[in-house]
Write a structure and sequence with these properties.
Elements lengths: L2 H18 L6 H15 L3 H23 L5 H4 L3 H17 L5 H17 L2 H39 L1
Helix pairs in contact: 1-2, 1-7, 2-3, 2-7, 3-7, 5-6, 5-7, 6-7
């Protein structure tokens, strides 16, 4: 697989990561489809291993999301800007504290958005709790799964 094709796979994965934060866009399926495309065009044992792992993580994520409350983020006052803050926080946390940093980073992004919007710590914490109860945990589970798949793909491309 050439560099141009790898860049295209990376772009589709990035679109999938962004799609997780946008309601109605199948973000996790875009990430999985990009990994499938990569594995089919670069048939190496590591590529197939990443694809099998990505499939397992995605199915596990679906099971976890099914058990969580349904997404009602719009009713709680969540905005697209909050999604950007949460996604940026999760990505930054995932990079700074590999893998586990996505969890506090996601919540820190929501907190920062609400702190800037509302002005106070108590109000921002209440808004964070509301956002997590009304579907933020479901978004976090899907985003975390996609970040794991992305990290496995990047690791396989760089070191594989």
């Amino acid at each position: 697989m050439g560099a141009g094709e790898l860049v295209l796979v990376g772009v589709v994965i990035a679109l999938g990561l962004c799609g997780v934060l946008v309601p109605g866009v199948p973000g996790s399926w875009l990430v999985w489809a990009a990994v499938l495309w990569w594995a089919l065009t670069a048939p190496q044992p590591v590529a197939w291993g990443v694809l099998v792992g990505a499939t397992g993580v995605l199915l596990l994520s679906l099971g976890v999301r099914w058990a969580l409350p349904p997404r009602r983020l719009r009713q709680s006052g969540a905005t697209p800007r909050m999604g950007v803050y949460a996604g940026a926080g999760a990505l930054l946390g995932f990079i700074l504290l590999p893998v586990l940093g996505a969890l506090p980073g996601f919540m820190a992004g929501i907190y920062l958005h609400e702190r800037l919007r509302l002005g106070g710590h108590g109000q921002a914490m209440a808004a964070l709790r509301t956002a997590m109860r009304t579907g933020g945990s479901s978004v976090l589970a899907e985003l975390f799964a996609c970040l794991l798949i992305t990290a496995a793909w990047l690791g396989a491309v760089v070191w594989g």
